[in-house]
Amino acid sequence: MNNNSNLNEWLVIVNPNAGNGKGKKDWDKIASLLKRENLPFTVKFTEKKGHAIKLTLDGIGSGFRRIMTVGGDGTLNEVVNGVFSSDACPTTDISLSLIPVGTGNDWGRMFGIPLDYEKAIKIIGENKQMLHDIGQVSFFNGPEKSSRYFINIAGLGFESVVVRRTNIQKDNGRSGKLIYLYNLLISLMSYRNTKAQIIIDGKESGADIFSLNVGNGKYCGGGMRQTPEALPDDGLLDVTIINGIGKFEIIRNLNILYNGKILKHPKIDGYKCKNIKVTSDSIIYTEADGESLGHTPSEFNIIPSAINIVYGTRIIQ
């Protein structure tokens, strides 16, 4: 039943395992800072993977319209999927905020949301808001078709292999800023490019894909800038395709993954679009916001001006 008394209260969804247990360890400190900032809240802790989706759905059904995530990009992704699975209200009635506790903070980095809890909570207290686009990706798990929403970056190919390896290690209790880079280098040893057919806004082409990133945001993998020109409110997806490139060439050019100059490389193509479809003879794994999903055929779409987010600094291109 809808409860109007919850409308101005934050539903705080905490992932206790985020940041190698920092979500649980630091919660008392975060809670006291929220109280000091006079931010009314109700807290719920996730108990397993996917639980934040249900907590969000239940919260919206109970009348909450402000949702705060205490965790990493994966927890934020689950909250977004909970919002877009609900039919209790338009998604534009919802406001999202973030206290980053994970290791990547890729989405928060784009909006000047710092890892310092006190500063992050000050930003939430200031409550500057903007409408943010949301991406949607459909994919397959065997013969079964599924879909997932994403707020930051999705992709397929090499990126997904690295994400898959990283998530297995996170599930086994290993975390840290360098783990993604370590898995990137290890995965390079065995990865092979895959031939694929790509349709971007109806225009078809072929590619020998190393990786394909679809960005609503600029950062992934703990600070990489694989879609450096992406904007979260332009109604478009930024696509970066690393095409026909060898592993040693990638190693030699590793810095372009971080310095924002990736689109200057002759074997890397960039596009802006509203829809992209990818099919391949061999399956290519797909991920979204650092969450391992299924495989090709995959399709990516944009939902413009879909949800309100609280930001610190706003990117204007």
List the helices and strands and how they pair.
Elements: E1 10-14, H1 18-25, H2 27-36, E2 41-45, H3 51-61, E3 66-71, H4 73-85, E4 95-100, H5 106-110, H6 117-126, E5 129-141, E6 144-150, E7 153-157, H7 158-171, H8 179-188, E8 194-200, E9 203-215, E10 237-243, H9 247-252, E11 268-273, E12 275-280, E13 285-288, E14 291-310
Parallel strand pairs: 1-2, 1-3, 3-4, 4-14
Antiparallel strand pairs: 5-6, 5-14, 7-9, 7-13, 8-9, 8-12, 9-10, 10-11, 12-14, 13-14
Task: Explain the overall architecture.
This protein is of the alpha+beta class and 317 residues long. The chain has 2 domains: 4-127, Rossmann fold; 135-302, Tumour Suppressor Smad4 (Sandwich). 27% of the residues lie in helices and 35% in strands. The chain has 9 helices and 14 strands. It has a 6-stranded antiparallel beta barrel with strand order 7-9-8-12-14-13. It is globular.
